[in-house]
């Protein structure tokens, strides 16, 4: 993805500065807010990427939308505007969250399910994460109806596929390779 390397550098610099000033948690909360807000607003995404809208207007809009953010975060807006890189703000936010989690030893478990997770399912998945990695993790739920049922769990490099779709594919492969069934 274009701009990801630059976003990683901005995020790393921001984390270093936030550590120096002891505000890493506050800036992480800001990055979560920024990331979610931009993901959920097509208009804001288009507004930030538009070459027609002046940077001063973009800065004023960001400061108004994210009025409650830390001074360090509003400083990030200014730096990105000065360097004509405001379009990578969502990437910077995502990279910062990842670096913050690594710094604090927090894993993120991405769980793909056919339906939204209930609290009971979340507890079972948390137990599976602990079984696979030995640690707990923040659970991020992704909904994909094509898996039919069950779940796909990704934690770092580990993937556990307990989906009905995967089980059906395995069964189909076994039946195709079965010499007795193929002769019928």
UniProtKB/TrEMBL annotation:
<keyword id="KW-0406">Ion transport</keyword>
<keyword id="KW-0375">Hydrogen ion transport</keyword>
<comment type="function">
    <text>F(1)F(0) ATP synthase produces ATP from ADP in the presence of a proton or sodium gradient. F-type ATPases consist of two structural domains, F(1) containing the extramembraneous catalytic core and F(0) containing the membrane proton channel, linked together by a central stalk and a peripheral stalk. During catalysis, ATP synthesis in the catalytic domain of F(1) is coupled via a rotary mechanism of the central stalk subunits to proton translocation.</text>
</comment>
<dbReference type="InterPro" id="IPR026015">
    <property type="entry name" value="ATP_synth_OSCP/delta_N_sf"/>
</dbReference>
<protein>
    <recommendedName>
        <fullName>ATP synthase subunit delta</fullName>
    </recommendedName>
</protein>
<comment type="similarity">
    <text>Belongs to the ATPase delta chain family.</text>
</comment>
<keyword id="KW-0813">Transport</keyword>
<keyword id="KW-1003">Cell membrane</keyword>
<keyword id="KW-0472">Membrane</keyword>
<comment type="function">
    <text>This protein is part of the stalk that links CF(0) to CF(1). It either transmits conformational changes from CF(0) to CF(1) or is implicated in proton conduction.</text>
</comment>
<keyword id="KW-0139">CF(1)</keyword>
<dbReference type="InterPro" id="IPR000711">
    <property type="entry name" value="ATPase_OSCP/dsu"/>
</dbReference>
<dbReference type="GO" id="GO:0045259">
    <property type="term" value="C:proton-transporting ATP synthase complex"/>
</dbReference>
<dbReference type="Pfam" id="PF00213">
    <property type="entry name" value="OSCP"/>
</dbReference>
<dbReference type="GO" id="GO:0005886">
    <property type="term" value="C:plasma membrane"/>
</dbReference>
<keyword id="KW-0066">ATP synthesis</keyword>
<dbReference type="GO" id="GO:0046933">
    <property type="term" value="F:proton-transporting ATP synthase activity, rotational mechanism"/>
</dbReference>
């Amino acid at each position: 993805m274009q701009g990801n390397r630059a976003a990683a550098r901005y995020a790393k610099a921001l984390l270093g500065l936030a550590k120096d000033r002891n505000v890493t948690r506050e800036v992480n909360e800001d990055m979560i807010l920024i990331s979610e807000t931009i993901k959920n607003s097509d208009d804001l995404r288009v507004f930030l990427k538009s070459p027609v809208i002046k940077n001063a207007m973009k800065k004023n809009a960001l400061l108004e939308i994210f009025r409650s953010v830390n001074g360090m975060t509003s400083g990030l807006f200014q730096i990105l505007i000065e360097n004509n890189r405001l379009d990578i703000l969502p990437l910077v936010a995502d990279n910062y969250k990842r670096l913050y989690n690594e710094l604090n030893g927090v894993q993120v478990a991405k769980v793909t399910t056919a339906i939204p997770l209930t609290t009971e399912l979340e507890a079972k998945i948390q137990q599976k994460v602990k079984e696979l990695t030995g640690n707990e993790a923040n659970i991020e739920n992704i909904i994909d109806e094509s898996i039919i049922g069950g779940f796909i769990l990704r934690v770092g490099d580990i993937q556990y596929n307990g989906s009905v779709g995967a089980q059906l594919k395995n069964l189909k492969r076994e039946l195709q390779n079965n010499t007795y069934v193929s002769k019928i």
